[in-house]
Amino acid sequence: MTSVTVIDLLKKNQILELLEEGKRVDGRAFDEPREIKIEINAIPKANGSARVFLGDTDVLCGVKIQPDRPFPDMGDKGIFMCTAELLPFSHPTVETGPPRDDVIELARVVDRGIRESHMVDVSQLVIEKDKSVVGVFADIVVIDYDGNLFDACSYSATAALLASKTPKWTMVDDTVTLVEGEESQLPTTTIPVSVTMGKIGNHIIVDPNGDEWASMDARVTITSDSDGNICALQKGGSDGFTLEEMHQCGDIAVRVGAKIREIIKESQKGSQ
Amino acid sequence: MDNKRKYVIPGDVITTGPFRPEQNVILEGDKIISTTIGISEIYDDSVRVLTLTGKYIPKIDDLVIGKINSHTSLSWELDINSCYVGFLPAQDVFGRDFSAHADELSSKLKTGDLVAARIANFDRTRDPLVTISDRDLGKIDSGVLVKISPSKVPRLIGKKGSMIQMIEMATDAAVTIGQNGWVVISCESPEGLLKAKKAIEMVNEKAHVANLTDQIKDMLQIKDNES
Hints:
Oligomer: heterodimer
CATH class of the largest domain in chain B: Alpha Beta
Radius of gyration of chain A: 20 Å
Shape of chain A: elongated
Shape of chain B: flat
Largest sheet of chain A: 6 strands, mixed
CATH topology of chain A: Ribosomal Protein S5, domain 2
CATH class of chain A: Alpha Beta
Number of helices of chain B: 5
CATH architecture of chain A: 2-Layer Sandwich
CATH superfamily of the largest domain in chain B: K Homology domain, type 1
Helix content of chain B: 10-25%
Strand content of chain A: 25-35%
Structural class of chain A: alpha+beta
Largest sheet of chain B: 6 strands, antiparallel
Helix content of chain A: 25-40%
């Protein structure tokens, strides 16, 4: 977004006062994410796609799988890449043009969560070593913004990758040739789930909504994999977290993440 | 009365004859033509169209609620829910002996503060000049901000303030209505506040309904009996 959303101070005070009483503006518990709805294969022509509604936040991810040249130092591995973009319609402060810092951060945090959990098994995505590999590109667009894009985008990318089918290619006379009619599930090893926590005053809240997002002092996004190991972390905002708070955040991320992982798994049923 | 009100779109001829054109209409020859989507109204000798949609267009002497978005060393910039940015000069708050070196603007109004302001000057070529140096104007310290469509504001006020008086009486809330569609409700009791908020949101949703006053009355009344 271009300009930072300015929240009116009356609202900010109200949010803080409620937190002091142990309540949140929308009535959730501190460690309760908003309702998550996942629509698999929302884009029929993509190799895989998912639209995720996290409360009023609405994001769509499409996955494109195609042959590509490998990176020079990683000839025995396929390519995974994740991008994110905000539609100008998603929020009044969003403008067209090159992505701003916060959007770049968004794409990188989502990418890192999936990459560092080794969700996509890139070693299986080689057509011919050092010559041709399969590239997996997850492109996310934000349709509606109401806070916490990190998690919404992360869930949509994860769900889209799980639902992705990859075509088969072989080398024939040094050219990559598509094998017609052969499709397989994209090789995945784990389901990474990111949980973003905001800090307002001394309170830590999971999945801040738009108003909470605009009034928080610091945030941390922690991604854990299916075994409950933390594999990526991003801290933002001007305030800090104490060591104790970080431990607390880690516990919350793994605990809440496990529940969300079930929702993502559930969404895959019927799509296979 | 009823046959005088009708829905119009831009270009619709509302009437012909010796009428005075008011808001959102133009006079061409002897025809009075709408310039917007809305409901046309013909009063004794004047014709106007109440718009159904649209952003707030500032008008001199309008009371608006603004949010401080940023400031320079000489003035504040206000979000007034318009395509224009409200411009509040520092002299207006600090007085004539304001000095850009000595006075820090954020000591009086911070980013995010809400203010009740009046449009002091506006001519569409420059951003509207607003003032807060008057009775009942200035920083708003308490209450809840509700945003409604600026075109529904006349409906919320009602004829001679009937609608808003009714809501205020029934809920014991004090409601400040900005012509720009931002409304601040302050009330001692949380129940009254919620009720007033609900009533205002209902006006916003059902502004086009004919017997809205009765519906609001019912809503407030029913709630009264329940509690």
